[in-house]
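ESCALATION

Customer reports they have been waiting on this structure for their group meeting. Please prioritize. Original submission:
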Amino acid sequence: MTDPTTRPFLPFALPDIGEDEIAEVVDTLRSGWITTGPKARRFEEAFAAFLSAPPLPEAEDDDAIQAVAVSSATAGLHLALEALGIGPGDEVIVPTHTFTASAEVVRYLGADVVLVDVDEDTLNIDPDAVEAAVTPATRAVVPVHFGGLAADMKAILAIARRHGLKVVEDAAHALPATCGGETIGTLASDACVFSFYATKTITTGEGGMLVTRDPALAARARTMRLHGMSRDAFDRYTASAPSWYYEVVAPGYKYNLTDLAASLGLAQLKRAHAFRQRRAEIAAQYDAAFVDLPLIAPPRARAGDLHAWHLYAIRLVDGAPLKRDRFVERLFEAGIGCSVHFIPLHLHPYWRDRYDLVPERFPVSQHAYEHLCSLPIHTRMSDDDVARVIDAVRGLLDV
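Update from on-call: job pushed to the front of the queue and completed.
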């Protein structure tokens, strides 16, 4: 066997940047406009078109997808909830099995987070837990599409309709996933937010996109993403007549996406489906190689739907030769990066202490966390890299 110390370390995630991305960025640098401007607008238009292809045959102009480019998915979630009027005295339901950004934006607005458990098979928010958590103070729910597999949005949207709740999807993992044959980002939610962080399915380095069919929500988000100003710099500085005047209509934020970042996004978006296909191929190789091992592989999408395969998160079963922590250590010793998604929010001091949370309230998420390990699944992996991960996992568990 080859000594792992003589082989390059295989990172858990790597961005896939090619010549088209570099050329688009260079074009922006040469244009003289590097902050939010024409490339950011082009990216918004291209993203909305990407989600809507093929376009809905009966969609009216005022029902079209609108995309608002922002500096991060966190910013997008914050803007969406702010535009929906979430504030002090309100409750927002969020799964405990997520990154803290999904919940912290609720606290930015002075509202309270109600954490709920997840479905045992998918690790997506459990609709029954959502229903049970609704109170007179509940105003919204934030479903998270874990690992790139769509949550049960039919059930979530039905609950929201029954109780008059707003729905803001955290789709940080979910480009380009589908649910019931519809692309995530085109469902009947009030808003949906994507992430373009360096590890995500496409990247702008840092960045995100808020999408909605609500023109008023989109307009509010555009205003609030840049200090609450009535006109952005691109409008003011590129007009053919003097147009320096603007008004601050609200105390907004600094959440705009630069043209440099949007340049990456324009090129990456063209590769999004090819990226997903490669990740799906890697997932299929893992599935076939691990079928007889003491682990639970991530579930496939329902028939007719697409899994974005942002993560390939396995769960070691009780009685496996190694506990999760030692399994992770041994993979790193073999030169293979991996991670854990997620440390549930109920275990973090802020959330635990603020809401008096205990693991027993979230048995599915807690048990999953204790057994989870995310393996590399990125498009810069060669078939040899995939085989290397498979050999290492089998070497540790096939005993």
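Sent to customer with the following note: The chain has 14 helices and twelve strands.
Escalation resolved.
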